[in-house]
Amino acid sequence: MVVPTEESVPLGIDEFCRRLAQELGTFNGEGLDLDAHLVDDLGFDSLQLLQTIDFIESLLGDGTLDDESEIIEALSTVRTAYGYYLTHASMPVTHSAASLDALGGRLVRLRAVGPVDYPRLYQAAVSNEVAWRWRYGGGLPSYEDFLRTFSNGVLTQLAVTSANSDSAIGLVVAYSASLANRTVYLAAMIEHESVGAGQGGEATMLFVRHLFRTWDFEKVYLEVPEFNLEQFASGVNTLFSTEACLKSHLYGAGRRWDQYTLAIYRDVFQRHWPLSIGRGD
Fold first, then answer.
1. Stated pTM of the model
2. What is the pLDDT of residue 93?
3. Are 165 and 69 in contact (CB under 8 A)?
4. Mean pLDDT value of segment 32-45
5. Virtual CA dihedral for 33, 39, 44, 49, nearest 10 degrees?
6. Alpha carbon distance 161, 51 (integer Å)
7. Which residue segment(s) compose the domain that 153 sits in?
8. SS3 (DSSP) at 67
9. Is 1 a member of any domain?
10. For residues 84 and 39, is the Cβ–Cβ distance under 8 A?
11. What is the CATH number of the domain that holds 258?
């Protein structure tokens, strides 16, 4: 017979909000509007959405978060996040966490990229929403040029898929590796339809972990345009260290933008990354 503990009794909404606010350290949970959208109203970025998943899981116990579509839907508002928690608080603990492996997370998986993925990745790379953020800087290469330059300077790259589908929704790339200096650069591209639900952030961090496990890198660099920084701004100066800023280095959308060089250090990554990715390390 399992004796209920105080922690196993579902939290009320006020206490849920208070603890979530404390976990993220970004907003005051007192009197929080339950219909506030985590992204549009509270300004959560990809990393904070993943922290929210880990916070809910910490209340439930190991291995209960196993439905990707429900998790993503739950990340829309405070009310839906709390509703997801309440629903799963009454469910038996499963063993889904055991299925997480080196290249799989809650929301996405990474796998080898192949010819079957090229058409969809090309369409993502030249779409209006992604093209100006990706390696071509707003340029629209032909499909032939896209294929010809696909692996230029690349150490390794993996397709990003949803956790419950094998179709590629993005790409993560390691390039300009210096094995002598133990550094490498990372870039990530996610279809516009999958932005804002934590999938891009989880894919990036899974890939960072893969790089640290596979090679003896000490630092992973990210070249980040100013207009992209908001996607994971909560990690700056905690998970990411700012090592350089090129002022007015880029031009786009009728104005000039700074470009940042951020670095993820091996030891800092191991301390800060969410539990749902870190299991098994």
1. 0.81
2. 54
3. no
4. 90
5. 100
6. 20
7. 108-278
8. coil
9. no
10. no
11. 3.40.630.30
Q: Which amino acid is at 39?
A: V
With 0-12 / 13-18 / 19 or more C-beta atoms within 10 angstroms meaning exposed / middle / buried, residue 255 is exposed
Domain finish residue from 81, 99, 117: 99
More confident residue, 113 or 6: 113
Contacts of 18 (CB under 8 A, 6+ apart): 29, 30
For 2-9, the CB contacts below 8 A with 24+ separation are 7/59, 8/61, 8/89
Q: Which residues contact 254 (CB under 8 A, 6 or more apart)?
A: none
Average pLDDT over residues 229-237: 86
Same domain, 208 and 159: yes
CA dihedral (218, 224, 226, 228) positive or negative: negative
Q: Give CA–CA dist 147/152, Å, rounded.
A: 10
Confidence of residue 121 (pLDDT cuts 50, 70, 90): very high
55 Cα distance to chain centroid: 15
Report the distance separating Cα 194 and Cα 170, nearest Å: 9
Q: How far is residue 190's CA from residue 134's CA, in Å, rounded to a whole number? A: 10
- Burial of 74 by CB count in 10 Å (0-12 exposed, 13-18 middle, 19+ buried)? buried
Residues 6+ apart with CB under 8 A from 125: 131, 134, 135, 136, 141, 146, 189
